[in-house]
Amino acid sequence: MISQHYKDMCATPSVIRSLAVYATERGKEIGYENVFDYSLGNPSVPVPQAFNDAIKRLLDTKTSSQAHGYSPNPGNPEVRRIVADSLKRRFGIDYRTEHIFMTSAAASAIAHAVRCVTVPGDEVLTFAPYFPEYNPYINATGAVLKVVPADTTSFQINFTAFEEMLNPKVQAVLINTPNNPSGIAYSSETLSKLAQILYAKQEEYGHEIFLISDEPYREIVFAGADAPFVSKFYDNTLCCYSWSKSLSIPGERIGYVAVNPKAKDAEMIVPMCVQISRGTGHNCPSSIIQQAVAECIDMTSDLSVYETNMNILYKELTDLGFTVVKPGGTFYIFPKALEEDAVAFCEKAKKYDLILVPSDSFGVKGYFRMAYCIDTEKVERSLAALREFVNKEYK
Question: Which residues pair with 102 in a beta bridge?
Answer without folding.
Answer: 256
